[in-house]
Backbone:
C-alpha cells in the first residue's frame, strides 16, 4: 500500500474509530464502521447489541439498514466497508451475500472473526462472489478500545463476572501473534 | 400480561384453529465438525503377531526403543488382541501366517505352528514412528525373534486416528479396522447421553413447530414478499411450551412495504431467522416496560409482524423480561440456515436448533457428512456434501455452542420444501 493509498484508507478508518469511541461512551461494545462509495461515506454506525437486546445488531447491520433505507441493494457492489474490528462470521456472510466490494478492518477477532480470525467466510467456497479483505489499519487503537470496554462491567450479560480487579493492559503484541489463523 | 396457563391455551387452541398438522418424522442429531474429522481420519499402524507369553516383553522392547512414542494418542486402539477378536478381514489376512516360538524349535525352519488361541497381535506404533526395517531390528533384540533366527511377521493396517464418539461408532470401527475401546465420552461433540435426553425432550413437538414454520414461510411467500422459508422460536424450559415468535422470510419486501423486483440477493437481513431473533428482542423490551418502537429500528430489518401467524404470536407477552438474548430458547427452521443466520443463532445463545431441509450449497450448520434418509428399517446413507462449517458446535473456536438436529420427514418426497439449490435460507 503506497503512502497516498494509506492516507486514503486511514481517513475512513479514523471515522470508524470515532464511531467505536461513541459506542464505548454508550456502554456498547466499541466497534464502529463506515461504508464508502466513490470516496463518500454513505453509512456509519456503532454496535447496538445492548440497547436493542439483540445480539445481531452489529455496527455493519445498523449501517447497512441505513444505506438500504435510501439506496438500492445493488449499490453495495460498488461499496467498501471500513470497520474497527474484523467482521464476525455472521457479518462476513451478510457482506458476501450483499456483494460488498472490499473490507478494510483494524484488529482481528480471534473469538468469532469471519474474515481470517477464525473462519474465512469471505473466501471459502460459496455460491456468492468472494471479496478481498485488508486488516491492520489502526489495529492498536481498535484493540485498546475493546480492552477499555472489557474492564467495564457488562451488566446485560448473565451472572456478571467481577471485573473490578481487572487491569487495563497497554502492551500490544506484535502483529504476527494476531494474524489470521489460516 | 397473559398468565402462563392462558397463554398455553391460546397457543394450543390457535395452532389447531390455524389448521396446523404436525409433520411426521424423526430427529437426527447433526455431526460436529470434529466428529466428522474424527470419523474420517486414519493412520497406518504396524501389527506384529507373537505368542501370548512374549507379548509383554515385545511391548517393553518397543517402549525402550521408541521413547518418544505417545501411546496416549492412540489409547482408543486396543494394544494386544487375540485372534478371535480381530475383524473378519484381518483374520483372513493374518490367519495364514505361521509364528515363531523360540523354545519349541522346529528342526527345519525354526517355526512351529502356534494354535490360534496362543497368538496375540500387537499394535506397535504408527508407521511414522519407525521404519519397517528398523522395527524388525528392534524386535530381533528379544525372543522369540532373537538374532533374527525367525523373522517377525509385520503387517501394516489403517486405524482410526481419533477416539470414537459413541459405542455404535466403536463397534463399527472394530468391525472395519481394529478392536477399539470406547470410554463413554465424546471429546468431539456433545455427549451421547446429552443428545439422547434432549432428543427425547423435543421430538414430540418438533413436527408441530416445523409445520408451523412451513406455514409461516408460505404466508409471506403468498404475498410475494419472501421465499418459502420460515422459523418458529420456542421456550421449553418450563413445564409448558411457549411459542415466542413465528416468522417467514421477507427478503423481497421493498422500502415502501410492497414486493420488490426479485433480483438476487434481496434483503439479506430480512431472512426468517433474523426477523425471528429481532422479534424476540422486541418482546423482551416490551415485557420489560420499554416500548420497542422507541428504540430506533430501521424498517429495513422487517422486524414487525406481517401475517396472521406472526402477529398472533408476537402479541403474546409470554417471555420472561430478565432473559439474555435468546438463551434457553429453541429454534425450528424449514431449511438449514445460511452461514449468516447460523452465526446469528450462535450469537443469540440459542439452546437448540432443528431444521428440515438441508442446503448443501449454502447451509452453515452441517459439518459436511452424509445424512441418513428414510426410516430406521430402510435407512440409506446419502452422501450430501456441504460447506462443512458445522457452526453449532465448534467450542474451541467460537464462543458458544448448542445442539442441532436435522428433521427427517417420514413421508418426505425429494420435492418437500424444495427451493432453488443456491438459496441462502
Residues:
Amino acid at each position: 500500500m503506497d503512502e497516498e493509498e494509506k492516507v486514503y484508507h486511514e481517513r475512513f478508518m479514523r471515522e470508524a474509530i470515532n464511531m467505536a469511541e461513541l459506542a464505548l461512551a454508550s456502554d456498547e461494545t466499541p466497534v464502529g464502521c463506515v461504508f464508502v462509495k466513490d470516496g463518500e461515506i454513505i453509512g456509519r454506525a456503532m454496535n447496538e447489541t445492548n440497547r436493542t437486546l439483540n445480539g445481531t445488531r452489529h455496527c455493519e447491520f445498523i449501517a447497512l439498514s441505513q444505506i438500504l433505507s435510501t439506496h438500492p441493494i445493488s449499490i453495495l457492489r460498488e461499496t467498501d466497508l471500513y470497520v474497527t474490528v474484523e467482521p464476525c462470521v455472521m457479518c462476513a456472510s451478510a457482506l458476501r451475500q450483499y456483494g460488498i466490494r472490499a473490507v478494510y478492518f483494524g484488529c482481528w477477532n480471534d473469538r468469532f472473526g469471519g474474515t481470517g480470525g477464525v473462519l474465512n467466510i469471505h473466501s471459502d467456497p460459496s455460491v456468492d462472489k468472494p471479496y478481498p479483505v485488508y486488516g491492520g489499519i489502526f489495529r492498536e487503537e481498535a484493540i485498546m478500545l475493546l480492552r477499555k470496554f472489557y474492564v467495564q462491567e457488562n451488566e446485560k450479560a448473565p451472572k456478571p463476572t467481577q471485573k473490578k480487579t481487572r487491569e487495563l493492559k497497554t502492551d500490544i503484541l506484535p502483529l504476527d501473534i494476531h494474524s489470521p489463523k489460516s | 400480561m397473559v398468565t402462563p396457563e392462558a397463554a398455553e391455551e391460546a397457543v394450543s387452541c390457535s395452532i389447531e384453529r390455524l389448521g396446523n398438522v404436525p409433520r411426521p418424522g424423526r430427529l437426527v442429531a447433526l455431526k460436529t465438525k470434529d466428529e466428522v474429522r474424527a470419523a474420517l481420519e486414519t493412520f497406518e499402524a504396524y501389527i506384529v503377531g507373537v505368542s501370548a507369553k512374549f507379548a509383554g516383553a515385545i511391548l517393553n522392547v518397543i517402549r525402550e526403543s521408541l521413547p518418544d512414542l505417545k501411546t496416549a494418542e492412540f489409547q482408543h486402539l486396543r494394544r494386544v488382541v487375540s485372534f478371535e477378536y480381530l475383524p473378519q478381514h484381518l483374520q483372513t489376512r493374518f490367519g495364514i501366517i505361521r509364528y515363531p516360538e523360540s523354545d519349541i524349535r522346529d528342526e527345519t525352519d525354526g517355526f512351529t505352528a502356534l494354535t490360534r488361541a496362543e497368538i496375540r497381535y500387537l499394535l506397535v506404533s504408527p508407521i511414522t514412528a519407525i521404519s519397517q526395517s528398523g522395527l524388525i531390528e528392534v524386535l530381533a533384540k528379544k525372543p522369540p525373534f532373537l538374532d533374527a533366527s525367525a523373522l517377525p511377521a509385520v503387517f501394516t493396517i489403517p486405524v482410526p486416528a481419533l477416539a470414537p464418539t459413541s459405542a455404535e461408532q466403536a463397534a463399527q470401527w472394530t468391525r472395519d479396522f481394529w478392536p477399539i475401546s470406547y470410554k463413554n465420552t465424546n471429546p468431539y461433540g456433545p455427549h451421547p447421553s446429552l443428545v439422547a435426553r434432549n432428543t427425547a425432550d423435543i421430538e414430540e413437538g418438533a413436527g408441530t413447530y416445523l409445520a408451523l414454520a412451513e406455514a409461516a414461510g408460505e404466508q409471506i411467500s403468498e404475498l410475494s414478499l419472501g421465499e418459502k422459508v420460515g422459523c418458529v422460536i420456542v421456550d421449553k424450559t418450563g413445564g409448558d411450551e411457549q411459542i415466542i415468535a413465528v416468522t417467514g422470510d421477507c427478503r423481497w419486501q421493498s422500502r415502501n412495504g410492497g414486493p420488490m423486483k426479485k433480483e438476487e440477493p434481496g434483503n439479506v437481513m430480512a431472512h426468517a431467522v433474523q426477523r425471528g431473533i429481532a422479534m424476540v428482542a422486541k418482546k423482551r423490551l416490551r415485557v420489560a416496560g420499554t416500548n420497542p418502537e422507541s428504540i430506533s429500528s430501521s424498517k429495513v430489518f422487517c422486524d414487525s409482524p406481517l401475517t396472521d401467524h406472526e402477529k398472533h404470536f408476537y402479541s403474546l407477552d409470554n417471555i420472561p423480561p430478565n432473559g439474555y438474548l435468546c438463551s434457553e430458547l429453541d429454534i425450528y427452521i424449514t431449511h438449514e440456515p445460511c452461514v449468516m443466520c447460523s452465526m446469528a443463532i450462535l450469537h443469540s445463545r440459542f439452546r437448540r436448533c432443528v431444521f428440515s431441509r438441508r442446503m448443501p450449497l449454502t447451509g452453515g450448520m452441517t459439518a459436511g457428512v452424509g445424512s441418513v434418509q428414510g426410516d430406521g428399517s430402510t435407512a440409506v446413507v446419502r452422501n450430501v456434501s456441504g460447506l462443512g462449517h458445522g457452526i453449532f458446535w465448534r467450542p474451541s473456536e467460537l464462543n458458544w455452542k448448542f445442539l442441532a438436529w436435522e428433521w427427517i420427514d417420514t413421508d418426505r418426497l425429494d420435492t418437500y420444501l424444495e427451493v432453488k439449490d443456491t438459496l441462502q435460507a
User: Anything to note?
Assistant: Residues 3-151 of chain A form a domain with the Cytidine Deaminase; domain 2 fold (CATH 3.40.140.10). Chain A has one domain: 3-151.
